[in-house]
Amino acid sequence: MQRRAIVDWMKAVTLALTIVFLVQYFFFANYVVHGESMMPTIHDGNRLIVGKIDYEFEKPQRFDLIVFHFSKEEDFIKRIVGLPGETIAYKNDVLYVDGKPKKEPYLVPYKDKLETVSSGNLTKNFTLREMTGRKTVPNDCVFVMGDNRRHSYDSRYFGFVKMSDIVGKVDVKYWPVDAFQVY
Fold first, then answer.
1. Its pTM surpasses 0.85
2. Any idea what the Cα angle at residue 84 is, between residues 172 and 151, rounded to 5°?
3. Helix/strand/coil (H, E, C) string of the chain?
4. Catalytic annotation, pick one of 52, 78, 169, 173
5. Confidence band, pLDDT 50/70/90 cuts, at residue 115
6. Long-range CB contacts (< 8 A, 24+ apart) of 95-100?
7. Is 91 a catalytic residue?
């Protein structure tokens, strides 16, 4: 009788672990952030849950936080600022998309700190053509930037991110616990 209970218990545990593995493999990914390019939104060492299937049902949106394959060995986390077909420019710390200014409320903490610590803009002036040689974001790509604009290696330096390289959208920051946030 006890042997039967142990076998049933082992089956249940095996099934549960299989389900967890499949859900994580196909639907979600766990990421640990390395670096400071997304500060103050996300810090070095934060842990994230990334939805792998979000973009199967909807298109990426401006200001989504995404994880993408930068290389075979390394994934990056950045914020989408430019979508396919758009022109992007920065002038006097303001983002312009197709010539219209866009507010970036997630940068307010950085800009407030910048005003008290030093002078100058958080984001240097640029146009998409100056950075990439293209007038608009290609149809199968996005233009990404880190929130820590002065210290972010992003599309201004490495160019566009192909849609096929996007792992998924950041859904939750869960560690440290006091920084928990749903995006």
1. no
2. 55
3. CHHHHHHHHHHHHHHHHHHHHHHHHHCEEEEECCCCCCCCCCCCCCEEEEECCHHHHCCCCCCCEEEEECCCCCEEEEEEEECCCCCEEEECCEEEECCEEECCHHHHHHHHHHHHHCCCCCCCCEEHHHHHCCCCCCCCEEEEECCCHHHCCCHHHHCCEEHHHEEEEEEEEEECHHHCEEC
4. 78
5. low
6. 95/123, 97/62
7. no
Query: Which of the following is catalytic: 37, 52, 152, 155?
Result: 37
**Letter string b/e over residues 121-132, b meaning 16 or more CB atoms within 10 A of that residue's CB:** ebbeeeebeebb
Asked if residues 123 and 68 have their Cβ atoms less than 8 Å apart, the reply is no
Structure tokens at 31: 């990421």
Report d(CA 65, CA 36) in Å as an integer.
Answer: 14
Strand partners, 172: 49, 182
Check if 78 is active-site. yes
> What's the CA gap between 20 and 79, in Å, rounded?
28
Q: Give the integer Cα–Cα distance in Å for 55 and 58.
A: 5
Question: Per the structure block, which two tokens stand in for 168?
Answer: 């998924």
CA atoms within 13 A on the CB side of 143: 25
- What is the per-residue pLDDT across 70-94, written as a single tens digit (0 to 9) for each? 999 999 999 999 999 999 999 998 9
Tokens linked to 35: 């670096």
